[in-house]
Amino acid sequence: MNPAKRLEIFTRFRAAKPHPKTELEYRTPFELLVAVILSAQATDVSVNAATKILFPVASTPQAMLALGEEKLREYVQRIGLYQTKSKHIMQACRLLVEKHGGEVPQTREGLETLPGVGRKTASVILNTAFGQPAIAVDTHVFRVANRTGLAPGKNVLEVENKLLKAVPDEFKHNAHHWLILHGRYVCQARKPKCGICLINDLCEYEEKVF
Question: 61 and 105: one domain?
Answer without folding.
Answer: yes
